[in-house]
Amino acid sequence: MDSLDDLLAEFRRKRAERTASIGDVSNGAILTCESGQRWVFLLPDMTEPGKWRMQRFDERGFSGHSIFNTQDELVSAAADDGFFRHDPGALDRLQGTSLFQRGNFLTDLVQRINARELSHAEADRLLAEYDAQPA
Fold first, then answer.
1. Which UniProt keywords are given for this protein, alphabetically ordered (predicted)?
2. What share of the chain is helix, strand, coil (3-state, %, to 5)?
């Protein structure tokens, strides 16, 4: 059985490899996890100049984001979360699908509910109308 020191050394080695494989993301990068079912888009944040954004998404649309003070923090967080394989075409492949578009529509409804712009009943009605549209 490996000692705790051996396990920690192996963890640090893998983390360093993953972080190095991500490289510079100054111009943005899309990474996937080992399953290839989830992605993150790493990019400079436009809402807080000088900060960095990790935007999460999957086949059902965007699902959240995190803001980081430095590019190094951003890259380390992506590697720690298991995102280290570059997949630059992921967003292009997904964004036109009906599942991705519906997910983004639903995310917008949730944001509007949270902002008290819509009631749950209104959001349910809008989602039903969306789903009733021909594909």
1. Plasmid
2. 45, 20, 30
What mean pLDDT comes out for the span 40-45?
97
Q: How far apart are CA 119 and CA 45, in angstroms?
A: 31
Averaged pLDDT of the chain:
94
Length of the chain: 135
71, 26 Cβ separation under 8 angstroms: yes
Span 92-121, pLDDT tens digits = 999 999 999 999 999 999 999 999 999 999
Residue 82, φ and ψ in degrees, nearest 5: 90, 10
For the chain, give me the number of helices (H) and strands (E)?
5, 5
DSSP 92: H
